[in-house]
Amino acid sequence: MKAANLLQLFPAAAPYADTLIAGMAAAAIDTPLRRAHFLSQIAVESAAFTKVRESLNYSIEGLLDTFGRHRISEADAERLGRIPGRPADQVGIANQVYGGEWGRKHLGNTEPGDGALFIGYGLKQLTGRGNVARCDKALGLKGQLLKQPSLLMRPDLAAKSAIWFWTDNDLNPIADTDNIEAVTRTVNGGLNGLSDRKVWLAKCKAAFA
Questions:
Q1: CA–CA distance, 113 with 208 (Å, rounded to integer)
Q2: CB atoms < 10 A from the CB of 160, how many?
Q3: N or C: which end of the chain has fewer CB within 10 A?
Q4: Other beta carbons less than 10 A from residue 208's beta carbon
Q5: How much of the chain exceeds pLDDT 90, in percent?
């Protein structure tokens, strides 16, 4: 796979292309099916390589639809969500949906404020203290990401962290089964954006066959 092939489908991927291609090869993301699943997933997570920081600028309805009432109550959604004339309280939303017992169990967010500190960064939108700590260790960064998780916005780390997550979760064998729902559940924790993921998967299959 060459940079020109990647950029033809994803023009905004230029800052990430060299690191991404080298990393994919090293991680054995090297068959058409594996490439298609990997790239389609990070395309959705990063809005086709245009965003490497998570936005939580949700409306009230968007909060409830995306995270569910088990993660955020209607009262909290009304208090924190975007309405005409008032932006969303993104720090409050992050601490609500990524904090508490759910955040501790699923994301390793053990400290007050971890929800807002460890929002999604990078091409994968790596989220949570636990994920960031493991990624930091794997990339040999000696705690830098724990102190400043926004470093994952740097193009090389944005790409490397996405590849790390893929390999750390052993997603190559799942991609080999061509089961987009199984891949999505591992990447996303649910099936958010599944229709978009299917569209990008079809495009990637056609481009990288």
A1: 41
A2: 23
A3: C
A4: 18
A5: 95
pLDDT at 177 over 90: yes
- Tell me how many degrees the CA angle 35-21-47 measures, rounded to the nearest 5: 65
Cβ neighbourhood burial of 20 (10 Å; 0-12, 13-18, 19+) = buried
Look at the block and give the residue holding tokens 């969303």.
88
Residue 155 sits at φ, ψ, to 5 deg, of -50, -45
pLDDT for 2 equals 87
Beta-bridged to residue 121, according to DSSP, are 53, 126
Which contiguous run of DSSP H or E holds residue 80?
A: helix 74-80
Half-sphere exposure of 197 (CA within 13 A, CB side): 20
Residue with tokens 């991680």: 27
SS3 labels along 48-72: CCCCCECCCCCEHHHHHHHHCCCCC
Cα separation of 151 and 138, whole Å?
15
Q: Provide the token pair at 146.
A: 């724990």
Q: What is the DSSP letter of 126?
A: B
The torsion angles phi and psi of 124, rounded to 5 degrees, stand at -90, -15
Q: Does pTM top 0.85 for this prediction? A: yes
Please count the CA atoms within 13 angstroms of the CA of 141 that sit on its side-chain side.
21
pLDDT tens for 125-166 read 999 999 999 999 999 999 999 999 999 999 999 999 999 999
The DSSP call for residue 140 is T
